[in-house]
Design brief:
- 50% of the residues lie in helices and 14% in strands.
- With 780 residues, the chain is an alpha+beta fold.
- The strands form 5 sheets. The protein has a 6-stranded mixed β-sheet, with helices on both faces. Strands 17-16-15-14-18 form a 5-stranded antiparallel β-sheet. The chain has a 4-stranded antiparallel β-sheet with strand order 1-2-4-3.
- α2 packs antiparallel against α3, α2 packs across α11 and α5 packs across α10.
- The longest helix is centred in the C-terminal third of the chain and has 83 residues.
- It starts with a helix and ends with a strand.
Length: 780
């Protein structure tokens, strides 16, 4: 993909705006800068590896782990300068030190999670540094970011000397200021610094009084700043120590800079690795922002994007309408038609952006199972390409852009054409547009074009390589849904009316097109309305089907959890029984030991009695007189579960020595050998259940805030999902009764909830004394 192709596609598809969002997700400064300068992968292996890294980070984030990138600075310039022999300032060295610690933390983090992120861990080899440099930089500075006196004792000695001299100077000056000898000469009672020397403000008239050395004069000339002779020698000694201190600090900084310069190649490699991890984490977080998915990627030129949303719309507050978009070897071209402002260009840009996002390994704002293959180049002719400077018309500039696309497109290229060959005579423009599309498809390119030309809308009827798609129009307004296999209509009159064009103009326009054409337009609009209505109904049915499938999956998962809980209870009971046997064995051993120590007849009798009682306590209860043959047990029979010590109702015929049984609210698979006949009979079933299935003899419960769910104001899908979660939660917490407050309203929510409960749940409405029909009571 050439630089011009990059630039054209990026600008036309607003890819730079998406990269700004990616940059905002980066945690390092260099990572943020790198994000806005895209590095598109040019090979399938590179794309798959980057997506694998994103997937690894997604799995780690779900476990609560994020890569530690704090403290890593963009120290590339400092490292390069140190490598050339420059002495770094202390601030630059502190940034290098912070980054070295950051590299080490990231290296350890990746090593700890190597099993979950093997691909990223393999890249962490660049983070392995000689521990000497980390140790040296750690010792070189204290916690305040100053050169460490513990590491450099001479530094401490010089600093202490300097502090002692400054205290002496301030004491002398303080005595002079507060004393009476200079009281009549001082302009003000304070000491200050001029020319890096301590001085006193003296009246100008006394500057020749021999008090000391004059270093400065005030702007007014009334004050001179004199270094008193009492502190001249102290100031001189202070300057000498300051010089020695500066040379010692320079020596240390030179030593540290040489160390950093020698390690610069490995440090730069560690910085690059850290930025690579940072960008992978940024892609991960950006994908999570719009509930993205990692697509399948290959090289056959296939695009199968399910429920694709425009990423910039998905990141904004505006709702993004999902669409299914497809291209393949069999159908390499898609022609989208429909009204202006109906979403044709947005749908096409969504597809183009997804192709660029794959090259950048960014998760797609689409449903799982989507696929976008690798395309290079990605060519676009979108918007107004008129060149004022070159004196070109809109159409001329449009043709030049198409010529550039034709010259660069071919196999594995993706071409996006907006309003192809518009802006000229419709008959000639349509013919020209068709010829261009056929040529592009002949070269092996994948093509998406938007058009208002009827000839292009019908192209799929004569050439199977082309598929038509229409932008849905419903209730005199676009819905922004793509309907593949349909031909769209312009709906010019409806659009004009929607945007406020006067009715008399619309009426005149209909007269001008003639009665026949006007009737045809109205017929087409009615057809579109009906098609949109049917499509909406189909979508509603599909939503219901998906909801039912999800509900069934949740029921199966709940059944599995309950079986696991029952099995755990059995295990716990068995373990308790084993522990009881062990305790009794120890008790018997102790009894025998006491008997051996005192073998009297009385003790022998007591020991025998105790052992018999112990055996009796762990023996299973004797079976009751059977009323049924366990070999002929069947659905509806009541039995006793010896292990759970509970009545159970058989739900299935015996198979492999096991039956399905209901123990309380839990369904389990029970071994026949654990069951005993029971005198208890199965509960009778009402002949005409009035409410939910499996109606018990009574549905009772005390309504409390904890067992009541308020569904008022929710949409049906939200209410069902929330109810499902609430029932699961209350069941796991041991509640048997749950109250659903749906209110009355139009009755739609109440009916939907009760229809969803159906025969899978036991429920009834509350009577007036309990709260009325605004509530539904569910028994778990």
């Amino acid at each position: 993909m050439s630089n011009s192709d990059h630039r054209t596609a990026f600008e036309a598809l607003d890819f730079g705006r998406l990269l700004d969002h990616l940059s905002a997700q980066a945690q390092t400064r260099r990572g943020a800068q790198s994000a806005i300068v895209p590095s598109l992968a040019n090979s399938l292996s590179a794309v798959r590896q980057r997506y694998t890294e994103v997937q690894e980070l997604l799995e780690l984030e779900e476990l609560g782990f994020e890569p530690p990138l704090g403290g890593i600075q963009d120290v590339s310039q400092a490292l390069e300068a140190a490598a050339k022999g420059s002495v770094l300032e202390i601030e630059a060295l502190l940034e290098v030190r912070s980054s070295v610690f950051g590299f080490h933390r990231l290296d350890e983090w990746l090593s700890q999670h190597a099993q979950i992120c093997p691909v990223l861990t393999e890249r962490s080899l660049g983070l392995h540094l000689d521990p000497t440099i980390r140790q040296f930089l750690s010792q070189a500075f204290n916690d305040q970011g100053e050169l460490s006196e513990a590491r450099y004792p001479r530094l401490k000695e010089l600093r202490e000397q300097l502090e002692s001299l400054e205290r002496s100077i301030r004491n002398v000056l303080d005595n002079l200021v507060k004393g009476q000898s200079l009281e009549h000469l001082l302009q003000d009672r304070y000491a200050t610094v001029r020319g890096e020397r301590w001085v006193l403000p003296i009246r100008a008239s006394a500057k020749r009084s021999g008090l000391g050395i004059v270093h400065d004069t005030s702007r007014s000339g009334e004050t001179v700043f004199i270094e008193p002779k009492e502190v001249v020698e102290l100031n001189n000694r202070s300057k000498i120590v300051e010089g020695e201190l500066a040379r010692e600090e320079e020596r240390i900084l030179t030593e540290l800079s040489r160390l950093v310069g020698g390690a610069a190649p490995s440090l730069l490699a560690a910085l690059d690795t850290s930025v690579h991890v940072d960008l992978a984490a940024a892609r991960c977080r950006l994908g999570k922002q719009f509930q993205g998915t990692i697509p399948e990627v290959d090289t056959q030129g296939v695009i199968e994007i399910k429920s694709a949303r425009h990423p910039l719309l998905a990141l904004s507050e505006n709702p993004a309408v999902p669409n299914d978009l497809f291209l393949s070897t069999e159908h390499p071209a898609l022609v989208i038609s429909g009204p202006n402002a109906g979403g044709k260009t947005v749908a096409m840009k969504t597809l183009g952006l997804c192709a660029l996002m794959v090259r950048s390994a960014i998760p797609l704002p689409a449903a799982p199972g989507s696929r976008v293959d690798l395309f290079d180049p990605i060519c676009t002719v979108l918007g107004d390409d008129q060149g004022i400077e070159s004196g070109l018309s809109t159409f001329s500039a449009h043709i030049l852009a198409i010529q550039e696309v034709l010259s660069s497109s071919g196999n594995q290229s993706l071409v996006l054409l907006d309003e192809l060959a518009s802006g000229t005579d419709p008959i000639q423009g349509a013919a020209l547009a068709r010829a261009v599309l056929e040529q592009l498809v002949d070269t092996g390119a994948r093509v998406v074009a938007t058009t208002h030309f009827p000839e292009l809308k019908h192209l799929g009827q004569t050439d199977s390589r082309f598929r038509s798609a229409a932008m849905q129009f419903e209730n005199q307004a676009p819905t922004y849904k793509v309907e593949v296999g349909q031909e769209g209509h312009s709906h010019a009159f409806a659009i004009a009316r929607r945007f406020g064009l006067p009715e008399q103009i619309l009426h005149r326009a209909r007269v001008l097109v003639g009665t026949h054409e006007s009737e045809r337009i109205e017929s087409l609009e009615r057809m579109d309305e009906e098609r949109a209505r049917l499509s909406s109904k189909a979508e509603e049915l599909e939503d219901i089907r998906r909801a039912n499938t999800a509900h069934q999956a949740k029921l199966e998962a709940r059944e599995t959890r309950l079986e696991e809980r029952a099995a755990q209870q059995i295990d716990d009971s068995a373990q308790a029984a084993v522990q009881r046997v062990r305790d009794l064995e120890n008790e018997v051993v102790n009894l025998i030991a006491r008997l051996q120590a005192d073998p009297t007849l009385k003790n022998a009798g007591q020991t025998l009695k105790a052992i018999r009682e112990a055996k009796k306590s762990i023996a299973p209860p004797p079976p009751s007189e059977p009323i049924i043959d366990l070999g002929k047990v069947g659905p509806g029979d009541m039995v006793y579960h010896r292990i759970l010590r509970s009545q159970a109702q058989v739900l299935s015929e015996p198979k492999d020595g096991r039956v399905e049984a209901q123990v309380g609210s839990i369904q389990i698979m029970a071994n026949l050998e654990d069951l005993q006949p029971s005198q208890k009979t199965a509960p009778s079933k009402p002949s005409k259940p009035q409410f939910g299935g499996n109606e018990p003899t009574s549905l009772e419960g005390v309504r409390t805030p904890s067992n009541t769910l308020d569904l008022r104001g929710m949409r049906v899908d939200e209410a069902i999902e929330e109810t499902d979660r609430f029932l699961d939660k209350r069941l796991l917490e041991g509640d048997r009764s749950v109250f659903l407050l749906h209110g009355h309203g139009t009755g739609a929510l109440k009916s939907a909830i009760r229809a969803w409960l159906g025969n899978n749940r036991t429920w009834r409405p509350l009577n007036e004394s309990e709260g009325g029909d605004a509530f539904t009571l569910v028994t778990l």
